[in-house]
Amino acid sequence: MPDNVYTVKIAGPAGAGIKSSGLLLSNILLKHGFNIRDYSEYPSLVRGGHNTYQVSFSAGEVFAPHFNIDIFFSLISGHWQAHQTEFSTNTLVFGDDAAIPLPLKELTDQVGSPVFGNTICVGVGAFLLNLDKNICSECITKTYGSDPTNISAFDLGYEYASKNYQQYVLKITLPSKNKDDYAIYDGNEGFGWGFIQAGGSFYTAYPMTPVSGALHFLAQKQSPTLTVVHPEDEIAAASMALGAAYAGARSAIGTSGGGFALMTESVSFAGAANLGVVFYLGSRPGPATGLPTWTSQGDLLFAVNAGHGEFNKIVLAPGDQQESFDLSVTALNLAAQFNLPVILLTDKFICESSASLPDLSAKSVEMIKSSIPVPGAPGQEFLANSYEHDSQGFSTEDPTQINQNVLSRREQLKSILVSVPKPTFYFGSQTATTLVVTWGSVKSTVAEALRIMDDPNFANLHFSTLWPLAPQTANLFKPFKNIIVVENNATGQFTQLLKSQFDFNPTRTILKFDGRPFFPEEIIKELSIIDQS
User: Fold this and answer.
1) SS3 348
2) Residue-wise pLDDT tens digits, 522-533
3) What is the mean pLDDT of residues 402-415?
4) How confident is the model at residue 376 (pLDDT cuts 50, 70, 90)?
5) CA 348, 258, 206 angle in degrees (round to 5)?
6) Average of pLDDT values for 261-269?
7) What are the two backbone dihedrals, phi and then psi, of residue 50, each rounded to the nearest 5 degrees?
8) Is there a cis peptide before residue 423, judged by omega within 30 degrees of 0?
9) Is the Cβ–Cβ distance between 251 and 279 less than 8 Å?
10) What is the CA radius of gyration of the chain?
11) Distance between CA 445 and CA 438 in Å, rounded?
């Protein structure tokens, strides 16, 4: 792979430990000092089907998982055939029926169960990548506990590879610097740590892929200062979160598109009643149930237009796992600062993919507190009212007061625009001829593509704030001859949003909408066409 990025992929049925073994390999690589980006796929099945996990790693920078595979493991027959477009002439494909035979059935019989096939593959991979066996053993024990069978399975795979695969060993130079102060986090864990570090005290969610992981993570972190609730449905979750915010909690709700559809009345309620609440919204493809375990950026316009009536809201979108942490903090602070709903829009590609990052549990952050008094505070009062109300919170239909309320919200918008994160340039400057515009999870893939291309003709402008958009944003596009917008949806929703606010006419949009994320190889191919023209 270009720039010494390598990718290992493992495939097999649900229930075979595909992701657990993949994360084990990722942790082993991290302990050797590599930078990590991973990606997993799975159907909505508990057993069977076709699951995959892939990890791209490098001693240098790597911002996104790659499409092209260096080493592929098929846990059972019939799985590698679905991935031939990802293979090159140099790809090493292992399995019972693969180009390089790996007798997993025979080897797993030696350790007593087919469930250890995944750990045997990790052993083979460790040999091919010339990894330290002691570090591998430490990671296995940390992951699976003291049961020696897992170590035996790893050793069996390693020894089999040393006897049969010497000719396939990759010439990889191990990093000279370890990453003991780093850990592997998926986007849900990034959000969770940001929520905790920013003083989040109440989180509620009805489980819904792809944000269920945040509920599980935060439930494990419950304490006297953090309450986590799994209620009976999404409407109850939203109502609880609003009630907690009224009582003084720094509050958030987790959901996906179908659940958020049930919560939109609560978004309006928060806007009217001046309640600062964060909606952690994980987008997935399709209407209704759609594709519950796949990825999409299809809910942008839904989030921006959620709720009835005219009121202020903020929509943010993390571009990677680090931004999941950073914008979790930002969302809580903005909700507290302006006492309004903040939607943190993410997707499966970020939520359930991982990256090697500095220890998030040790990161200190700024915490902005709400100006609204807690009920029962001596000498203070706050009436939360979903009706149009006066300055004391009492319902009103007086036209003068209503006009004042509307104008007050418009005035608040000016302060919001000053406070939200600004668009940021990456990989290039305004001297470039072509600007690539990104939002959300395509950031990491475009960043990886531009890193590999190293072409001064391209710059990247990334948006973390999707709503509201400042009028002066239009000036950022003016210096460029070509403007390309990359989106993981079918209709170019961010392009539509920009057109609705500015005189914005991009040269081209690059769209993908099959439930899969972009890979850097795809972006490079598309941008190369533009560069040649």
Assistant:
1) helix
2) 999 999 887 655
3) 95
4) confident
5) 80
6) 97
7) -135, 105
8) no
9) no
10) 25
11) 10
Q: Which pLDDT value is given to residue 310?
A: 95
Closest CA to 214 of 203, 201, 225, 223: 203
pLDDT for 45: 85
DSSP for 388-424, please give it.
Answer: -B-TTS-B---HHHHHHHHHHHHHHHHHHHHHSPPPE
CA distance 67 to 523: 11
Residue 428 clears pLDDT 60, i.e. is over it: yes
Banded pLDDT at 389 (limits 50, 70, 90): very high
Local structure of 211: helix, strand or coil: coil
Q: What is the mean pLDDT of the chain?
A: 95
pLDDT above 70 (res 430): no
User: Residues 73-101: what's their mean pLDDT?
Assistant: 95
- Nearest-angstrom CA–CA distance, 214 and 254: 8
Q: What is d(CA 39, CA 64) in angstroms, rounded to the nearest whole number?
A: 9
19 in Cβ contact with 82 (< 8 Å) = no
Q: Determine which helix (DSSP H) or strand (DSSP E) holds 326, and give its type and residue range.
A: helix 321-338
Domains of the chain, earliest start first: 2-168 (3.40.920.10), 185-419 (3.40.50.970), 424-532 (3.40.50.920)
The answer to whether 169 touches 127, Cβ cutoff 8 Å, is yes
How far apart CA 441 and CA 355 sit, in angstroms, is: 13
Q: What are phi and psi of 148, to 5 degrees?
A: -70, -10
Contact indicator for 270, 314 with CB cutoff of 8 Å:
no
CB 176 within 8 A of CB 33: yes
- All residues at 6 or more sequence positions from 384 whose CB lies less than 8 Å from its CB, including other chains: 246, 273, 274, 275, 393
Burial per residue of 100-128, b for 16 or more beta-carbon CB atoms within 10 angstroms, e otherwise: bebebeebbeebeeeebbbbbbbbbbbbb
CA–CA distance, 101 with 29 (Å, rounded to integer): 25
CA dihedral 274, 276, 277, 281 (to 10 degrees): 90
List the Cα angle 232/237/241 in 5-degree steps.
Answer: 150
Residue 2: pLDDT above 70? Answer: no
Lowest average pLDDT, out of 343-347, 374-378, 517-521, goes to 374-378
For residue 467, give the nearest of 504, 510, 500, 505 by alpha carbon.
500
Name which of 94-98, 423-427, 436-440 the model is least confident about.
423-427
Cis amide leading into 210 (omega within 30):
yes
Confidence of residue 129 (pLDDT cuts 50, 70, 90): very high
C-alpha to C-alpha distance for 57 and 179, rounded to whole angstroms: 13
DSSP category for residue 174? P
- Amino acid (1-letter code) at residue 516: R
User: Lowest mean pLDDT: which of 16-20, 177-181, 278-282?
Assistant: 177-181
Q: Three-state SS string across 92-160, please?
A: EEEECCCCEECCHHHHHHHHCCHHHHHHHHHHHHHHHCCCCHHHHHHHHHHHHCCCHHHHHHHHHHHHH
pLDDT tens-digit profile of 189-209?
999 999 999 999 999 999 999
